[in-house]
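Worked example

This section walks through a single chain of length 129. The input is the sequence exactly as stored; nothing has been trimmed or padded.
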Amino acid sequence: MSMIERISHTKGVSNLKLASDDLKLEIYKLTLNEIFIALGQDLQGLPKNYVDDLKNGLQETINGFYQLRIKSIANTININAIMPKFIEANTKLLSATTLLGAGKIKSDKYYKSLQICRERIFEILELLA
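Given that input, the structure is written out below as tokens.
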């Protein structure tokens, strides 16, 4: 079960596609918050499969925001300020997972990528508050 599916179920949603736009936005915010919290933990102890889950959760959230972008709910958030931050957060998380996937040791670049991703997610959450 993906991160978004798990969070959706905690909100009583079995099919996110059928949820209201307000509920989708709430689930996306919760997903971002979970990623933010995870990246604030011991980064040395994050297993590769969990980092992959974080990456997939972020990508699903970004895709969800692109779908919300054309809906009226987009008028309630500063979508134009949020999307560039999503792009940077995603790029940094992809960079970190690529380093892990290549079998490289966790380096400064890996940890810095995760920290920058976390910072961008924090900025997104601030804009969504």
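What to look for: The two ends are 27 Å apart (CA to CA).
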